[in-house]
Amino acid sequence: MESRSNLLQSLSRREMLCSAPGLAAVRRLGAAPASPEARPPNLVVVLADDQGWGDLSIHGNTNLSTPNIDSLGRDGALFERFFVCAVCAPTRAEFLTGRYHPRGGVRGVSTGAERLNLDERTIAQFFRDAGYATGAFGKWHNGSQFPYHPRARGFDEYYGFTSGHWGQYFSPQLDHNGTLVRGRGYITDDLTDHALSFIRDNRRRPFFCYLPYNTPHSPMQVPDRFFERFARFEPGLRARDPRQEEIPMTRAALAMCENIDWNVGRVLKQIQDLGLAENTIVLYFSDNGPNSWRWNGGMKGRKGSVDEGGLRAPLLIRWPGHIRANTRISRIAGAIDLLPTLADLAGIPLTGTRPLDGRSLKPLLAGSEEGWPDRMIFSLQERKISVRTQEYRLDNEGRLFHMPSDPGQDRDVSAEQPEVAGRLRQAAAQWAREVLPGVGPDDRPFPVGYAAQTLLPARDGVPSGGIERSARPPNCSFFTKWSRPEDRMTWDIEVGQAGDYLAEVHYACPPGEEGSLVEIEFLGSRVQGRISRPHNPPLLGAREDRVPRLESYVKDFRPLALGTIRLPGGRGRLVLRALQVPGRQVAEVRYVSLTRKR
After folding, report:
1. For 235-283, what is each residue's pLDDT tens digit?
2. DSSP code per residue over 76-96
3. CATH label, 7-365, candidates 2.40.50.140, 3.30.70.940, 3.40.720.10, 3.40.50.10140
4. Which of 31, 198, 243, 307 would be 135's cystine partner, CB 3.0–4.6 Å?
5. Phi, psi at residue 25, to the nearest 5°?
């Protein structure tokens, strides 16, 4: 259950005090050790977004080449049966906590359902408290407003975006430590640039660098130099049912995966050039199955499915001198195992956390599979549950499949193995009783006042009247078709620190439609302002898309300062409305911004 307001406040204050770069290291370690070998191992964790198990050449895909990612498995270990969640935010939560995502309040991927409860302790908090410099560069997807923001969850440095997807990959607007900034160049390259700077700046102390890319998630945008060789490519390996495959989508995804590989190569080169390779653990995985029907080893399902193809993902990990080269691990493992494994490898005790669902994989990495017990890994998506053991998968309809002989889940063997089927059905029912009570509607408000500035994006608001979203997927959408005084945009917020706030609306308005008087109201407090200047930026994204998108196109919105509003503490509905509409429309809205005045 999510914490109440006073817990929010105490957590946020503590995290803000601890978030200054280097504070934990100065407190715990003092001066940096003279040699890398004398200190704990560095960590670099790379997470791809919507990259399937089959999107690597090391797994047998001859449609593309991923030599840098493959090198991690050649020089270290490759897990043959590694399982994540069916969609993005749940996998990220399980990596961060070592616990199944429903236990931490993660119910979905947008409009606040992706938030990780504040009483969950993250892997970054453990490593930061042990003296590590911590940085995250990419797609966060476990909460946007402080204290859900990565800077309040253990990361000294953050650069990227916090929602589930982004609408433009070339020089987009991004978040740098809670402030909106303009990115430089293609987003995956830009995120890598910031990670490289972080590694270089912290090379003399232990660091934990988390690099959660947002590709090959749609929209399908990739630089020409990566796309050119795939522009007319006819894949030799096809989806399990080739009739389902959209070849233009496959081409774009393959190009994006090769771009990821190039960037992973840049990270590995920097680690080598800085003399850190021998003392740096590099781990690579992905967050769910592929985002389109393409080659995936003949497995059933894709992203969003709790079948094998929606859940099986790459996991490669390298630590020279500690993990033997070309290690192949056949035992099943999952995202829930990564926190206890990395903490164990680094010698960090996991104290002050709730019971973990994951276990340390260190014995497997050391080459000792003998005596490793069989286990069950549970998966949940929209109340659909499947269970995986070493040999079997029980699907969400209660059918049983023997995975070594039937990786495509074509033949139900529950009648032949009634004892196994019964045992797994009983386990699934028990697990459902544990976790499903936390999966219902999300009643948590959006916190305001726990950082100097709070952004309330359209994705977290509710439109009414004639107002619509710019696209059905909410994450990077904006509000449009605002034309009448009875139209409303509302945000369910909780103000943690009462006081005076500068209220701004990030808007777009074509010439000839300016002049509307708008108002923000919260628990009886009001502030008004007039949209006196037109601002009519173009929609961005269509020119760079390789295939048509579902996500919203984006614009560069202009902030309009309405003035100061006195926000009382507590929970209520923040309402944005128009009092006067002289033209045919009011404006389009991307954010409401509330900045605490001292």
Report:
1. 999 999 999 999 999 999 999 999 999 999 999 999 999 999 999 999 9
2. SEEESSEE--SSHHHHHHHHH
3. 3.40.720.10
4. 198
5. -65, -40
* DSSP-derived 3-state class of residue 379: strand
pTM, two decimals, is 0.94
E strands present in 523-569: 525-530, 558-567
Q: What is the DSSP string of 126-160?
A: HHHHTT-EEEEEEE--S--STTSSGGGTT-SEEEE
The alpha-helical segments, DSSP class H, found in 108-246 are 123-129, 187-201, 224-227
Residue boundaries of the structural domains of the chain: 7-365, 384-438, 446-596
| CATH 2.60.120.260 assigned to 446-596 | yes
Distance CA 274, CA 198 (A): 13
The pairing of strands 377-381 and 384-388 is antiparallel
Which residues is 378 bridged to in the sheet?
387
What pLDDT does 16 receive? 39
Beta pairing, strands 488-495 & 570-580: antiparallel
Least confidently predicted of 37-46, 242-251, 334-343, 354-363: 37-46
Q: Is 13 exposed, middle or buried (0-12, 13-18, 19+ CB in 10 A)?
A: middle
> Taking Cα atoms as reference points, which of 587, 489, 578, 589 lies closest to residue 534?
587
13, amino acid identity: R
pLDDT per residue as tens digits for the range 143-193: 999 999 999 999 999 999 999 999 999 999 999 999 999 999 999 999 999
Q: Are 51 and 286 a contacting pair, CB within 8 Å? A: yes
Read off the amino acid at residue 137: F
Report pLDDT for 37: 53
DSSP assignment of 288-339 equals: SS-SSS--STT-S--TT-SSHHHHEE-EEEE-TTTS-TTEEE-S-EEGGGHH
The CB density around residue 52, as the number of other CB atoms within 10 Å, is: 30
Secondary element (H or E) of residue 505: strand 499-508
Rounded Cα–Cα distance for residues 591 and 335 (Å):
33
pLDDT of 122 > 80? The answer is yes
Q: Which residues, at least 6 apart from 351, have a Cβ–Cβ distance to it below 8 Å?
A: none
- Dist CA 164 CA 171 (whole Å): 18
Active-site positions read 88, 141
Q: What's the pLDDT tens digit per position in 484-518?
A: 999 999 999 999 999 999 999 999 999 999 999 99
